[in-house]
Amino acid sequence: MNEYENAIEIKDLTKKYDGFTLDKVSFNVPKGSIMGFIGQNGAGKTTTINALLNIVKKDGGEIKLLGYDSVNDEYEAKKQIAAVFDELPFDDRLNAIALDKILREIFEEWSTDTFFGYLDRFALPKKKKFGKFSKGMKMKLQIASALSHNAKLLIMDEATTGLDPVVRNEILDIFLEYLQNEEHSILMSSHITSDLDKIADSVTFIDKGKVLISGYKDDILDSHGILKCTKDDYKDIAPEDIVSARLSDFGAEVMVSDKAACSRKYSGAVIDNASLEDIMLYYVNRSKKEWR
Amino acid sequence: MKGLVYREFYLMRKNFALTLAVFLGFLFMISLVFISTYAGNLAKDEENNQMIASFYPQAYLYTGAMALLGFSAAQNGVVYDDYKSRWRLYTYTLPVDEKKMASSMLVSRIILLVVGFLFAVVGEVVLGFAAKKGVSLEHIKNLAVMAAIVSVTFITLPSALRHKEVSKTITTYIAYGIIPFAALVFGIVKFIIYCIKEAEVRYPYLKGEEAIRKVSEPYQEKLVEIAAIAAPFIIVGSLVLCYFRTVKELERRRY
Predict the structure, then answer these.
(1) Considering A216, B154, B169, B237, which has the largest number of Cβ atoms within 10 A of its Cβ?
(2) Which residue spans traverse the membrane (chain B) (predicted)?
């Protein structure tokens, strides 16, 4: 059995397209944890995931999945990985019974009982064609198939996008259940930061092909804050303390990356807690420094 | 690989059933026509009997073409549907390498070709008995040659994977095929002109069409003989070419 500390290890991953470059992306997903991979549309999340799964050939860098090299030991790794995409990748003419027959020949550890168990739990019909499923049903089906072959790593690419809050909540609960087993890990890319607020242990934020922050979610949330001040007071804030600032006619809201230090430095200033969404918003605008 | 082959057949079952229904319907109709020449309303009509006598040697070719092309084509849409459904993307996340994926696609096509050939032979048997002529081994040999020609269409698989849309694949093959096709048509026209001239010289006492047939028969027989010897090589060659090009195409990762 392969021993490993991190379910995913990415080091200096590079991929070049015309007009976009994934530039030395590096981060790790510790075993037994769930990492939220956030960024706005076009930031490079899907490209990173595609490179992880060797769907696209990387131009540089190293990737390890469950301790295996993602290229040289690709198929060994993929026996224990399940990928979930934003759209159902199974033909509309198939039904669950046919899908079971297909996937049980592909995955050595496929369990028909587990698969049908999840279908019953999600109240998904076995004989109905997938073309007649709703979006929520399709996502639950994908997750059922992902969880039915003893996968140790789930890689989800925008899997909760477009789902209603009830279904999203249901799916997040399933992920938490999945992580009860310490051997299991999840990498979940999303721009719905509220989902990651709920379940992520760690977060990596990517923007324009570069990783801006990567670390434990609680540490990131604890260290960042939104300093609120007047326009005059804003001028007194040192540039190195500012990630970016949102200016309005009434004052300024400044994202700071070291809340504790800024509290001491700018005593009297009000520093509110920042959510992941706030952090994403301010970091995306960091090049402008000041924005409205 | 079993799962992938099962999937291909599951998705094409409607096309398969439709092709089978059309084939059986056509076979039934032609058989009835032959039967009626001795047991029906065409029995006393001498002109019709002559027409059918000339049609019988070709009938098995029509049913054979229908079976071979029809069943082989049943799978064509699956490749394109796979891109639309994102199945192709999903297969890159599975513990299945490109060689297995290519093999599964080829195995499906081979099975369809064999099934098409078997139905073509069934057609020959049914028509042979309907026309009271029995089964002709010569006809079966010709059907085997036809199967070899149909197997050449396997090489469209890598193009289908590359282009992802039917229209683009067809356009590519028209572009590549237009010159060889023009050369073939030119060759056939030249051959027909040669046969006409030879027929006037060698068989001036025979009617035009009959004389031309007499001139062309030895060449046709020779061509079929050569094709029958070449058939296994054509089939194997098409399969091998298709396999390696398909693996290469899948490895290109068109995402």
Answers:
(1) B154
(2) 16-39, 59-80, 110-131, 143-161, 173-194, 223-244
Q: Between the CA atoms of A280, A86, A55 and A60, what dihedral angle is there, to the nearest 10 degrees? A: 0
Residue ranges of alpha helices (H) inside chain B are: 2-39, 46-73, 76-84, 87-91, 98-130, 137-151, 156-163, 166-202, 208-251
- Tell whether A15 is covered by a domain: yes
State ipTM.
0.85
Asked if A106's CB is within 8 angstroms of B4's CB, the reply is yes
Rounded to two decimals, what is the model's pTM? 0.82
- Whether A66 and A177 share a structural domain: yes
Dihedrals phi, psi of A60, to nearest 5 degrees: -170, 165
| B254: nearest CA partner in chain A | A56
Give chain A's domain count.
2
User: What does pLDDT average to in each consecutive run of 10 residues of chain A (292 residues)?
Assistant: 85 92 94 92 91 91 94 92 92 94 94 95 93 92 94 92 84 90 93 86 93 92 90 85 85 88 85 89 81 70
Q: What is the pLDDT of residue B120?
A: 94
Closest approach of chain B CAs to the CA of A93, in angstroms?
A: 7
- The rounded percent of chain B whose pLDDT value lies above 70 is 94
With respect to residue A265, please indicate whether it lies within any of the assigned structural domains: yes
- Between CA B219 and CA B46 the distance in angstroms is 31
Which positions in chain A touch B255 (Cβ < 8 Å)?
Answer: 50, 55-56
